[in-house]
Design goal:
136 residues
Length: 136
């Protein structure tokens, strides 16, 4: 789907305590929101996405793609961001793309605009997860 101004892309970054989302029409930023999410990320991310869409008068069904920061970063933060990104992309039947590095946003937007679709985006945690072994 395209908005009057181009493809509407939702960008999500949840690798650190300060979470960030943005709305773009192609490469033009329509709106952005940063907040100190810390341990409230799981509770706040969906409501912040709804907030930015409402403020921009863009309904969910006008989203064309989801872009998510790939990492490395916080294990839990990335898991939450990727869960939301993949679920939204799947439910709206739109592409999901991930990107990393200092130019992740520009590179990710370019991927989306070139037609990329990871179907299910996977994070890069930067190290193996530290999982507690079960007691025997």
């Amino acid at each position: 789907m395209t908005h009057a101004q181009g493809k509407v892309i939702l960008a999500i970054r949840t690798d650190k305590a300060e979470a960030e989302i943005g709305l773009f029409a192609d490469r033009k930023k329509l709106a952005g929101l940063k907040w100190q999410a810390d341990r409230q990320l799981a509770q706040e991310l969906n409501q912040k996405i709804l907030e930015i869409l409402n403020k921009s008068s863009i309904p969910y069904d006008e989203l064309s793609a989801i872009l998510v920061f790939k990492g490395p970063g916080s294990f839990t933060g990335l898991r939450i961001g990727f869960s939301v990104a993949n679920a939204l992309a799947y439910s709206l039947a739109i592409p999901v793309v991930s990107a990393s590095g200092p130019n992740w946003l520009e590179e990710g937007l370019a991927q989306v605009l070139s037609g990329a679709n990871e179907k299910i985006a996977l994070p890069n945690y930067g190290a193996p997860a530290k999982v507690t072994k079960p007691k025997k």
